[in-house]
Design a protein that fits this description.
Bound molecules: NADP nicotinamide-adenine-dinucleotide phosphate
Helix content: 40-55%
Distance between the termini: 57 Å
CATH topology: Rossmann fold
CATH architecture: 3-Layer(aba) Sandwich
Radius of gyration: 19 Å
CATH superfamily: NAD(P)-binding Rossmann-like Domain
CATH class: Alpha Beta
Number of helices: 10
Shape: globular
Strand content: 5-15%
Order of helices and strands: EHEHEHEHEHEHHHEHH
Largest sheet: 7 strands, parallel
Structural class: alpha/beta
Number of strands: 7
Number of domains: 1
Length: 281
């Protein structure tokens, strides 16, 4: 059993989750770095050794779409460490396509990982976070605030997470639990590679949507050219973990702040439509 504060992070095999695990360990937290396939732990183990924080990091299996793995992981954490002070819901997956092409099942798949996974993990962690008066930090996206072309399923899931957390926040606060959402723009992680997108095949199957999809992909490639590093994007997550009273909503870069402000000040929705329609022409 440890007396150090303990944080559980989902999706730490790569990208933002991996960088957050390193940052949390550097900040002195006992870090439960979870992943759905612990066979993919090499990158994290290597980074932990390089940053001399391996003794603060414990790797455990957790698939956010598998309720038994969530329960088993939390039981182990409490048995071994006696406490949970923070949950970082980071696991997520991109989904590209428009509804006529992808179908309803793919939207359900996107919701399973990006929304219901967050809901299930949060619910399971809440009794322990009540005991510690801890906090819930959830990585959403600028796509959880601004709907983006060919991201209907992904943005719907991230909007759902934002609505869920914004609603939970005042309730959790009555029990001393802080709730924060983190909104990154483009981050140079495995996010795009994990899509396994076969571009020629996707474009060939896109029918009347092909010109717009091609324009969108060209624009997205450009924006990922200026992507934040995972370490830079993880810095505000560590700030939210360690500060006295984190705000509800944090963007990870000036670009992300500027972009989400488009929606937050767009009372009739015309500003966002004017902006995103240029992405597909
Ligand atoms: N990269 C961006 O541009 C960007 C922008 C805004 C928001 N985000 C958000 O940032 C978060 C982290 O993404 P990233 O950019 O770091 O991408 P990433 O490198 O692809 O990392 C995603 C992580 O989630 C894990 N994951 C996927 N499905 C899971 C499941 N069912 N259970 C547990 N873990 C699962 C992946 O594990 P496997 O290795 O097993 O697939 C991986 O560890 C996501 O919530 C994403 O939506 C990313």
């Amino acid at each position: 059993m440890t007396s150090e504060k303990t944080v559980l992070i989902t999706g730490t095999s790569s990208g933002l989750g991996l960088a957050t695990a390193i940052g949390a360990a550097q900040a002195g937290w006992t870090t439960i770095a979870t992943m759905r396939d612990t066979g993919k732990a090499d990158a994290l183990l290597k980074a932990a050794a390089e940053h001399d924080v391996a003794d603060h990091i414990q790797i455990k299996r957790l698939d956010v779409t598998d309720p038994e793995s969530i329960t088993a992981c939390l039981e182990e954490v409490i048995a071994e460490h006696g406490r949970l002070d923070a949950l970082v819901n980071n696991a997520g997956a991109a989904h590209i396509g428009t509804i006529e092409l992808i179908g309803v099942d793919e939207v359900r798949t996107a919701m399973e990982v990006n929304f219901f996974g967050v809901v299930a993990t949060t619910r399971a962690a809440l009794p322990h976070l009540r005991a510690s008066q801890g906090r819930i930090i959830t990585v959403t996206s600028v796509g959880g605030v601004v709907g983006q072309p060919f991201n209907e399923a992904y943005c719907a899931a991230k909007f759902a997470v934002e609505g869920f957390m914004q609603s939970l926040a005042p309730v959790a606060a009555t029990l001393g639990i802080d709730v924060t959402v983190i909104e990154p723009g483009a981050v140079a992680s495995e996010f795009v590679a994990n899509l396994n997108l076969d571009l020629p095949t996707t474009l060939a199957a896109a029918g009347p949507y092909a010109p717009a999809l091609e324009a969108y992909i060209a624009r997205t490639r450009q924006s990922f050219g200026n992507a934040q590093t995972p370490t830079d994007a993880a810095t505000p997550i560590i700030d939210a973990l360690t500060s006295d009273r984190p705000p509800f909503r944090i963007q990870t870069s000036p670009w992300a702040r500027d972009f989400v402000s488009t929606t937050l000040a767009d009372l009739d929705g015309s500003a966002v439509q004017a902006l995103t329609s240029t992405w597909v022409r």
